[in-house]
Amino acid sequence: MNWYLQVIRKYATFNGRATRQEYWTFTLINFLIAMGILIIESMFLGTFDEDGYGILYIIYAFVVLLPVVAVNVRRLHDIGKPGYFLLITLIPGIGGILMLIYALRESDYGSNRYGPHPKQVQEEDY
């Protein structure tokens, strides 16, 4: 949960780097929260029968939109790619696959042009 809150705190930080652990932990918790909201809405508000999503899900999606984009950009920075590579996801089919490959790649060890390795910075703080 700490990784999720860390990403939310850095909701509009597009510089720096995000490790795989930070990215994937945030993505998993974000997915679980979104599914929980959808289940609650479908059970209690009856939005499952309607076309589209309920208002709670839409509000949540807008609240986390900027943090999701920011953590994706920082994840790309972590592997040495510029943030505008996120636009590759707009290409149907291949774009999502390429972004998944980028998200799964191991971090550039040491510093790159986007900053020091996040794990090294954490170790120096102790």
Task: Describe the overall structure.
Helix content is 61%, strand content 0%. It has 126 residues and is an all-alpha fold. The chain has one domain. The chain is elongated. The protein starts with a helix and ends with a helix.
Q: What spatial form do the alpha-carbon principal axes imply?
A: elongated
Taking all Cα atoms into account, the compactness measure Rg is 16 Å
What structural class should be given to the helix and strand makeup?
mainly alpha
Unreliable residue runs = none
In N-to-C order, the SSE pattern is: HHHHH
Distance between the termini: 21 Å
- The helix content is 55-70%
Structural domain tally: 1
The helix count comes to: 5
Strand content: under 5%
Brief rundown of the structure:
This protein has 126 residues and is mainly alpha-helical. 61% of the residues lie in helices and 0% in strands.
Keywords summarizing the entry:
mainly alpha, elongated, 61% helix, single chain
Write the layout of secondary structure elements.
Layout: H1 2-9, H2 20-45, H3 55-78, H4 94-104, H5 118-125
Helix pairs in contact: 1-2, 2-3
